[in-house]
Specification:
CATH topology: Rubrerythrin, domain 2
InterPro entries: LysW (IPR005906)
Structural class: mainly beta
Organism: Paractinoplanes ferrugineus
CATH architecture: Single Sheet
Largest sheet: 3 strands, antiparallel
Protein name: Lysine biosynthesis protein LysW
Length: 55
């Protein structure tokens, strides 16, 4: 599967075992990307993990 990094447009070759919601890193710009679609392959910038401050 080939998908484009939404940050730098690099084409990433994702393994066939890639799953929805999996987070991958772009080797060029180092952005963390979330897989939001398999057919067609689509990546978005992964949301920042929010701290819960013990709540």
């Amino acid at each position: 599967m080939i998908a484009a990094c939404p940050e730098c447009e690099r084409k990433l070759d994702l393994p066939d075992s890639t799953r929805l919601s999996e987070v991958v890193e772009c080797p060029d710009c180092r952005s963390e990307l979330e897989v939001v679609s398999i057919e067609p392959p689509l990546l978005v910038i992964a949301p920042e993990a929010e701290e819960d401050w013990g709540e």
